[in-house]
Write a structure and sequence with these properties.
Layout (H helix, E strand, L loop, with lengths): L12 H13 L8 E2 L1 H7 L4 H14 L2 E4 L3 E4 L4 H25 L2 H20 L2 H19 L2 H13 L1 H7 L5 H17 L3 H20 L3
Antiparallel strand pairs: 1-3, 2-3
Helix pairs in contact: 1-3, 1-7, 2-3, 4-6, 4-7, 4-9, 4-10, 5-6, 5-9, 9-10
Length: about 220
């Protein structure tokens, strides 16, 4: 708690952009939802000038779109564009998988195995909300293990753009039962330090997402 005579420092534009991007990724803002500067300023404890700069940055990333004389809103992504995004992710995520397999430590391997067990338990119990959260956690852990900042940044942007489609896919009938073994295969390959298998498992998983999205065209 701040002491008398002090105040909480205002978040930087980059930090504020990251926080708003994360909120969009988590589904807190819907496609086409207007992003009101005054509301964001209050929610994120930032000045309206800082919010405006953050929204300009997110617009440059394609996550937000500016409306003439009407502020900004979350950009809606079509199914066709969502497929293109996953196609772009294949190259980046297979790179991450290979890097992770090459550099994983024993402690990180144990953590990934535990996460795999949690994924399987979530599917067995029908906890789709928990399963979706664990999927995001797996992606984040693999990026941390790979320690490739450029791939991490690009993937975070792409994931935020297609967050709504990703959220809906998690609730497709039978999707979790199919994707859980795919995630476990990725984990097993990375833990085994088998870069080729990690790439194949990652590509197989993402190809399945493209196939499922294609049924919505």
């Amino acid at each position: 708690m701040p002491t008398a005579g002090t105040s909480t420092p205002e978040p930087s534009a980059d930090d504020l952009s990251a926080r708003i991007r994360h909120a969009i990724l988590e589904g807190e803002f819907a496609p086409n939802q207007r992003l009101i500067e005054a509301d964001l300023s209050e929610s994120f404890d930032a000045s309206r000038a800082a919010v405006r700069m953050a929204l300009l940055s997110l617009a440059a990333e394609g996550i937000v779109e500016r409306l003439p004389n009407r502020g900004a809103r979350v950009r809606a992504i079509s199914v066709s564009e969502a497929i293109e995004i996953v196609e772009a992710r294949i190259g980046l995520e297979t790179l991450v998988a290979r890097k992770a397999a090459a550099s994983i430590t024993s402690a990180q391997a144990d953590n990934l195995r535990d996460l795999g067990h949690e994924l399987e338990a979530a599917v067995s119990s029908g906890d789709l909300v928990g399963y979706a959260r664990l999927n995001q956690e797996l992606d984040a852990r693999l990026r941390d293990i790979a320690d490739h900042d450029t791939a991490r940044e690009l993937l975070e942007r792409l994931s935020a753009q297609s967050a709504r489609h990703q959220f809906r896919l998690a609730y497709e009938p039978g999707r979790a039962a199919r994707s859980a073994p795919e995630h476990v295969a990725i984990i097993d390959a990375v833990v085994a330090k088998d870069a080729d298998a990690a790439e194949i498992a990652t590509r197989t998983h993402l190809d399945g997402i493209i196939e499922l999205l294609g049924t919505r065209l």
